[in-house]
Write a structure and sequence with these properties.
By secondary structure, the chain is mostly helical. It has one domain. It contains nine helices and no strands. Helix 3 crosses helix 9 and helix 4 packs across helix 8. The longest helix is centred in the last third of the chain and has 40 residues. It is elongated, with a radius of gyration of 20 Å.
């Protein structure tokens, strides 16, 4: 973690872009903590807000688009085979695929806030042959909101950013669990409604 902070302090905006690109693709980069730290550097006057925001936004968009491209060009078969290098497990990939089938495009928008799943949603979107325009229409605004949220948080936390960053990670896990539960409940109610409609529909035909 400290090495990441040192790289950003030393190499600046280019390193923000590079690390976020790699982190969103799936490499072990502490994305949210990195953004909060950058917000703190803006607070200290060691970074300018606009270049920091643009670098982070470009990194998040490039990372999520690269994940989409991997899914679209290689497909889920190759991703499953080599996914261990991006921390992609069979169980996680199947779960996200089912989630994407149920709530579709919104999974791309909300996926940024789901711990460890943002690159899965993009890969599944690509493998599902979702049009790039449709992908970008949901994934890019999600990235914009995600980057802005954590940069702003780091700025307003100021000197307290480091003591609170651990709590932020815990709350993200709780949020992920809560959102996953909400999606599961929504899917269950949708399934019940479809079944109820099927049962209540009159049967036509000759007796």
């Amino acid at each position: 973690m400290e090495s990441v902070f040192q790289w950003i302090t030393t190499y600046g905006y280019g390193m923000i872009f590079l690390l976020l690109t790699l982190g969103v693709v799936g490499l072990p980069v502490p994305d949210e903590t990195l953004l909060v730290f950058c917000g703190y550097l803006i607070f200290k006057g060691r970074m300018h807000p606009l270049p920091a925001w643009l670098s982070a936004l470009a990194g998040s968009w490039c990372g999520i688009t690269l994940s989409y491209t991997i899914g679209r060009t290689l497909g889920l078969g190759v991703v499953r085979r080599f996914g261990k290098y991006l921390h992609i497990t069979e169980e996680r990939l199947d779960r996200v695929h089912q989630w994407f089938d149920r709530i579709g495009h919104w999974a791309l928008f909300a996926g940024y806030y789901i711990a460890g799943l943002r690159h899965f949603t993009a890969i599944v979107a690509g493998a599902s042959k979702l049009r790039f325009v449709s992908f970008a229409a949901y994934a890019w605004p999600g990235g914009l909101l995600w980057v802005t949220t954590f940069l702003t948080l780091g700025y307003y936390l100021g000197e307290n950013w480091k003591s609170i960053s651990g709590a932020i990670e815990h709350y993200l896990v709780y949020f992920s669990i809560a959102l996953g539960a909400a999606v599961a409940i929504y899917c269950w109610f949708s399934w019940r409604r479809k079944n109820a409609a099927g049962v209540s529909r009159p049967i036509s035909g000759k007796e």
